[in-house]
What does this fold into?
Amino acid sequence: MDELELFDTVDDMLGGVVMALGGPKKVGAALWPDLPVERAAQNVRDRLNHDRRELFSPQQVVYLLKQAREVGYHAGMRWLSSECGYTGTKPAERDAQKAELQRQFVRAVDVVQRLGKQLEKLGAD
It folds into this structure.
């Protein structure tokens, strides 16, 4: 069965992600470590219930999808991409991702150095 067929709604997709991560108790404890486990788990269940007003924040959704990737569960991200009209989504290889981040870092350092030199010139006047 195609993983995309498993979900009809974003709530279904997030439910699949939560289950892949170990269920509401485990996810709740990760999202709200300061709450008692059962209360944190109820927060997760409330956010998965389309009849409730509570929702995961965008940052929490991104966190859950990243955690799902770490455990090898990609159905949530594939569904989201498909739902938004994208095709061919696959997880990035860690080495390629690391190399790209290093390239971005080097470019950022170069920009900061150039800005520093410009500021020095302005201060010298």
